[in-house]
Amino acid sequence: MKINSTIVLLLLCTLGLYKGNAQPVITINSLLNEMTDFDAVTKFPSPSFTLKQASSYDRRSISPEQPGWFANGDFNQFIREEKKDDHNEFVMMDADGPGVIVRFWLTTLAKQGTMRFYFDNEENASLIISDFDLMKAGFDLGPGLLNPHSSYEPQGKGGNTLYFPVPYQKHCKITWQFADSANMKTPHYYQINYRTYTPGTRVETFATDDLKRYKTAIDKAEAVLWNPPPVKGKDVVRHLKLAPGKTASISMPNGAAAIRMLKLGLTSIDEKDKEKLWRSVMLKIQFDGHQTVLCPLGDFIGGGFGGKPVKSWYRELSDSGTLTSRWVMPYSKSAVLTIENKYDVEISLDVKATITPFRWNDRTMYFHTTYKFEQDIKDAKWDYDAGKVAKNDPAGPIDWNFASIRGKGVYLGNTLSVNNHMKSWYGEGDAKAYVDQETFPSEFGTGLEDYYNTSWAPVVLYQTPFANAPRADQPSSAGYNTFTRTRILDAIPFSKTFSFDMEMLSWDGGTIDASATTYWYGFAGASDK
Predict the structure, then answer these.
(1) What is the rounded distance in angstroms from the CA atom of residue 485 to the CA atom of residue 469?
(2) Could you tell me the end-to-end alpha-carbon distance of the chain, in angstroms, rounded to an integer?
């Protein structure tokens, strides 16, 4: 008997037995695997997605060309208010799927109330949290996936940042119900970063039972985020001595390969020189003949000026002065690493690059680091009237640009190192990320410290897998400060352009010196302006 192959194929698809080239379902397990895979960021995302943010930014900010652009009432701002049978709910996020929440930051002074998550247009919320506090969601997560901020108090002020992914197939809505009218007068701040995949992407919607079903994967991810696995490969090792003004270059093995780990150790350095050296020793890297990295060592690794210790997922700087980069840096033919000594004393440097073969394809991107430094940046005094001016008003505040990239790639975060000339907090301004020539940013934040996963300035030191404050010279924030944040599930893809700004707003007004180091991957030809 002759069997029609089309009928057989349809039958197998109906029974779920034929996989073919069908895209796998996105689940909590697959997202946690992506979060802990260093190679994931080297490929342009597939399935493709956009990265957006819902936040409590001041709604008077409508356009850079209109008054209100620097308005600073970034709290208790919602998408809309919905009336229920016996109460009102304020909508924080309302997004069609397929998608996934990849970062949820919040803080307040008064936690009482009810937060609700509605998945796939359900009538009644399937996830209910008793307070404005993700620590009380019952997720039972470690501090890598759910970070309590340094100011966190379970019954008082402070907030937390959720990195545990929350997927949904059709739709997700998050609402907040204030406990009472008095509670409505207390500031509540939030930022929710979420992916929206291309139509047809299959996503397994979050259910509370998933916390048990994926418990092994959750615990594994938590452990790995704090203790990245060792890297094995061919080691290229050099000991360098560089006189002032001299450079040394090291060629990596030719062919399709990747630098998987880079270790640099400053040795035999006088203690009085260490602080300036981290800003004066430059790292340059060329991939396939194109220079994509040019940055001081301290800023490259996230320690900023002075090279203070950092311990994070991608990067580490030890107390002894050993720099460890775990950014995977692929190349198709060649790579050359160059060290330049711009300081006035001889330096001694141990270099070890661990190389492995790498399979290059049409989604592979080059690693980039963009660095800029500027002195005496205007940091205007904030007040609610500061929002009355537009961006181009010479008397008003400014947006300070970290990087403006042309081409196709993925944004992976930044390091901000500041020398604050004022005696009080300099970071009232909001972070703004623009994708593909947007006139209004995809991300519009609520404050500098909020972007870096903490809350309530000035800020104390902290170390987490994806955000760190390695330096704060004074409790008032005067002097040197460093913040760094890297991204993976919350990375931002762009096809044509990407730009990142920070509003320059402070408590009292004055100036700062600042360096901004931006980490990103891009295709050949992509570059910062």
Answers:
(1) 9
(2) 67
